[in-house]
C-alpha cells in the first residue's frame, strides 16, 4: 500500500432539532476518531432534516452567526480530525436557505464550503411524495474542490448532484481523488438507483466515492434509504452498511489506487472539455 487514509462515514437519522441531532451524532464521531479515522463524514441534512418550510426558514441564520456551525467546528477541533459536515442549512440572501456542506480542518477552521447545485424537484409516483427543494433552498453556483488530509483533493457534492456526471468529471479533471456524496436519498430512488449511481460516478472519474446517508423514518415523516457506502476508483464497493439504522462504516483508502486506475482507463480525460472548479 502507498498513501493510506482511513475514512469513516456516520449514518444518521436526523430530526428537526439541531442540538438533539448533534448529541445523537457525537458518540459515532468519537468512535470513528478513536478507531483512527482521519476523515469523518456525515450525511446531507445532518443538523436539521425538516420538510416543513414554514417551520424551517424562520429558524435559519447566516453561517457566520449560526451557533450550530460553531458547535460543529468545536467537535472537529475536539476530535482533531478532518470533519465533513455533509450539510447544514444556513440563511440565503433571498430568504431561502443554502443546503451547504462544510469541511472542517482538525483545528476547527472551515477549509471549504459547498452549496448544493442541483435541487431535487420531483414527484415520485404519488402526489403524497412530492419534493420541491427550490421552494426552500437557493442553488449553489460553483463546483468546489478542497485539499484535505494527506494532501488528498476532495470534491464536494450533495445527494441529487450524483445524477449529473458533468459535475463529477469536472472535479476529476481538477484533481479530485475522493468525491463526497452526503445524501438523504428517498426510499424509492435509493432502492432503485443509489448503489448504481455511486459506482458509476466512481468508475467514470476513477476516484474514491464516499457516501454517508440518512436512514429510516424521520421526525418530519420522511423516509430515507440509508446504505452508506465507500466505493473505490475501480467501482468496487469496499465498505457499506446494509440497513437504514444509525451506524458507522469505515475503510482504508489507498490513495495511490487513483493514479493506478486512471492509468489503466484514461477515458475520464476524453470527450468535450468542461470548465472545472
**Spatial arrangement of strands, main beta sheet:** 5-4-3-2-1-16
How does the major sheet shape up? 6 strands, mixed
CATH fold naming: Nitrilase/N-carbamoyl-D-aminoacid amidohydrolase
Q: Which structural category fits the helices and strands?
A: alpha/beta
Q: Please, could you describe this protein's structure?
A:
- The chain has 277 residues and is α/β, with parallel strands linked by helices.
- It has helices at residues 18-34, 53-56, 67-79, 165-173, 187-205, 256-264; strands at residues 4-11, 39-41, 82-91, 97-104, 110-115, 121-123, 130-132, 144-147, 153-156, 178-180, 208-211, 215-217, 223-225, 229-231, 237-240, 247-254.
- It has one domain (4-269): Carbon-nitrogen hydrolase (Nitrilase/N-carbamoyl-D-aminoacid amidohydrolase).
- The protein contains six helices and 16 strands.
- The strands form four sheets. Strands 5-4-3-2-1-16 form a six-stranded mixed beta sheet.
- α1 (18-34) packs parallel to α3 (67-79).
- Mean pLDDT is 93; it is low at 273-277.
Index terms:
28% strand, six-stranded mixed sheet, 16 strands, alpha/beta, disordered C terminus, Nitrilase/N-carbamoyl-D-aminoacid amidohydrolase, single chain, 277 residues
What is the element layout, followed by pairings?
Layout: E1 4-11, H1 18-34, E2 39-41, H2 53-56, H3 67-79, E3 82-91, E4 97-104, E5 110-115, E6 121-123, E7 130-132, E8 144-147, E9 153-156, H4 165-173, E10 178-180, H5 187-205, E11 208-211, E12 215-217, E13 223-225, E14 229-231, E15 237-240, E16 247-254, H6 256-264
Parallel strand pairs: 1-2, 2-3, 9-10, 10-11
Antiparallel strand pairs: 1-16, 3-4, 4-5, 6-7, 8-9, 11-14, 12-13, 14-15
Helix pairs in contact: 1-3
Amino acid at each position: 500500500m502507498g498513501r493510506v487514509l482511513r475514512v469513516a462515514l456516520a449514518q444518521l437519522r436526523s430530526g428537526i432539532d439541531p442540538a438533539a441531532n448533534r448529541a445523537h451524532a457525537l458518540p459515532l464521531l468519537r468512535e470513528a476518531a478513536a478507531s483512527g479515522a482521519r476523515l469523518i463524514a456525515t450525511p446531507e441534512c445532518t443538523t436539521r432534516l425538516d420538510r416543513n418550510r414554514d417551520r424551517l426558514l424562520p429558524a435559519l441564520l447566516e453561517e457566520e452567526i449560526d451557533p450550530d456551525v460553531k458547535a460543529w467546528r468545536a467537535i472537529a477541533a475536539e476530535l482533531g480530525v478532518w470533519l465533513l459536515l455533509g450539510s447544514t442549512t444556513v440563511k440565503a440572501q433571498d430568504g431561502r436557505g443554502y443546503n451547504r456542506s462544510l469541511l472542517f480542518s482538525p483545528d476547527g477552521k472551515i477549509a471549504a464550503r459547498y452549496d448544493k447545485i442541483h435541487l431535487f424537484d420531483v414527484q415520485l409516483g404519488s402526489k403524497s411524495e412530492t419534493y420541491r427543494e427550490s421552494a426552500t433552498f437557493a442553488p449553489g453556483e460553483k463546483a468546489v474542490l478542497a485539499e484535505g488530509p494527506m494532501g488528498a483533493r476532495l470534491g464536494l457534492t450533495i445527494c441529487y448532484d450524483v445524477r449529473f456526471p458533468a459535475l463529477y468529471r469536472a472535479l476529476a479533471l481538477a484533481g479530485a481523488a475522493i468525491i463526497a456524496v452526503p445524501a438523504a436519498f428517498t426510499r424509492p430512488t435509493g432502492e432503485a438507483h443509489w448503489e448504481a449511481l455511486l459506482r458509476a460516478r466512481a468508475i467514470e472519474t476513477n476516484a474514491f466515492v464516499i457516501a454517508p446517508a440518512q436512514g429510516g423514518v424521520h421526525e418530519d415523516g420522511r423516509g430515507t434509504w440509508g446504505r452508506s457506502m465507500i466505493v473505490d476508483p475501480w467501482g468496487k464497493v469496499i465498505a457499506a452498511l446494509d440497513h437504514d439504522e444509525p451506524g458507522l462504516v469505515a475503510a482504508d483508502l489507498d490513495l495511490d489506487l487513483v493514479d493506478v486506475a486512471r492509468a489503466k482507463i484514461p477515458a475520464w480525460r476524453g470527450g468535450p472539455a468542461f470548465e472545472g472548479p
